[in-house]
Amino acid sequence: MDDRQLSLGSGLTPPAEIQMVLTLVTPELAREWLKRNIKHNRPISTAKVKQWRTAIDAGRWRLTHQGIAFDPDGNLIDGQHRLMAIGSGNVPVWIPVFYGVPAECFAVLDVNYHRSAANSLSIAGHKNTATLAATIKLIVAYDTNNLSSSSSRMTNEEHLALVEEMPGVGEATNFGLRLWKAIQITPSAAAAATYITRRERSDLTNGHWDSWEEGVVTGAMLPGNDPRLNLREAMKKRAVESIAAKAASEAGRVKIHATRDIAKGQIATYILAFNAWVENRKPRSFVWNPSEVSMPTVTSAPFARRS
Fold it and tell me: Once rounded to an integer, what is the mean pLDDT over residues 94-110?
């Protein structure tokens, strides 16, 4: 035994009273165990219960090392949200259950750093994960017409499932970061708009996409009133407005959900510019009222010939 092991002392011996049993927890069993919930456990988060319930119903529940814990007296000291989610449905799930956990352990449960969606995506092998996670949220918000809401709660499991259901979102994220460097658009907004337009117009050729995306990034050799050029100018103007809006919000002069409002406007502007480019229209500006309930949709018109 080396000096490092000796310094650990009795901590080298695991407490014999703690036992773990991998258990198929049915809704009935979950409801029964919830009767043992300790009075001073944390307040119930209905949003958290809904997240777990959605994951179970969608088949995204994954067996991990995290589970349910009871103290030596049989009181539930951890896992109430998981149990409420299981108990509110009709699908049993496998989960590790720990018995005999000393009561003093309750004070240190869930006080460490919470793993973010970006952390989970990184562990799964994805790149640019902070932008990727934000992009996934914006795509879901756009698809559900929920970009005006400040609520964007999604579990890490949902992020991991959705990234697999969104082929090309990683490439869209890479382009979003490139476009951000070029015209100061929010990276996740650029990535979400890129993914949405590519998804809706899978009929366009690689040549079409190269022309659109390279034109927006560089602005080189574009004629006046070209939608790509106008988009570049609109984004640069919005970047200045965004800085002012955030400063006003932080100073308490206005109340806005700055990040989501800015992304909403940028995605709308991007889609309007893309539509104009596909249809070979050359408006001087893109008019879209941020108070509109619905976001612009991607045009289904055939790609117009250029003279």
Answer: 73
What is the four-CA torsion angle of 135, 44, 78, 52, rounded to 10 degrees? -40
The alpha carbon dihedral of 188, 193, 199, 205 has a sign of negative
- Cα–Cα distance, 135 to 238 (Å, whole number): 19
φ, ψ of residue 22 to 5 degrees: the values are: -75, 120
Q: How far is 281 from 204, CA to CA, in rounded Å?
A: 17
| pLDDT one-digit tens code per residue, 54-65 | 888 888 888 888
Residue where the block lists tokens 């949200």: 81
3-state SS, the chain, equals CCHHHHHHHHHHCCCCCCEEEEEEECHHHHHHHHCCECCCCCCCCHHHHHHHHHHHHCCCCCCCCCCEEECCCCCEEECHHHHHHHHCCCCCEEEEEEECCCHHHHHHCCCCCCCCHHHHHHHCCCCCHHHHHHHHHHHHHHHCCCCCCCCCCCCHHHHHHHHHHCCCHHHHHHHHHHHHHHHCCCHHHHHHHHHHHHHHCCCCCHHHHHHHHHHHHHCCCCCCCCHHHHHHHHHHHHHHHHHHHHHHHHCCCCCCCHHHHHHHHHHHHHHHHHHHHHCCCCCCCCCCCCCCCCCCCCCCCCCCCCC
Spatial separation of the C-alpha atoms in residues 197 and 229, rounded to whole Å: 18
What φ, ψ does residue 83 adopt, rounded to 5°? -65, -40
pLDDT digits (tens, 9 = 90+) for 172-197: 999 999 999 999 899 999 999 999 99
Q: Considering Cα of 199, then 203, then 206, then 209, what sign does the dihedral take?
A: negative
